[in-house]
Amino acid sequence: MSRIVILGSGFGALAAIRELRRRGVAADITVVSPRSQLVYLPSLIWVPCGARSGDDLRIPLEGYFRRQGVRWQAGTVQQVLDGGRRVITDQGELRNDYLIVATGGRYLRNLPGIEHAIIPCEGIAAAETLRDRLATMKGGTIAVGFASNPKEPGAVRGGPMFEFLFGIDTLLRRQGRRGHFRLIFFNPSKEPGQRLGPAAVSRLLAHMARRGIDTHLGQKPLRFEATRVLTEGGSFDADVILFMPGLTGPAWLDGSALPRSPGGFIACDETCRAQGLERVFVAGDCGSFPGPDWMAKQAHQADLQAGAVAANIAAELRGEPARHGFKAELACIVDTLDSGLFVYRSASRSITLPRLRVLHWLKRRFEGHYLGTYR
Question: Is 277 in contact with 84 (CB distance < 8 Å)?
Answer without folding.
Answer: yes
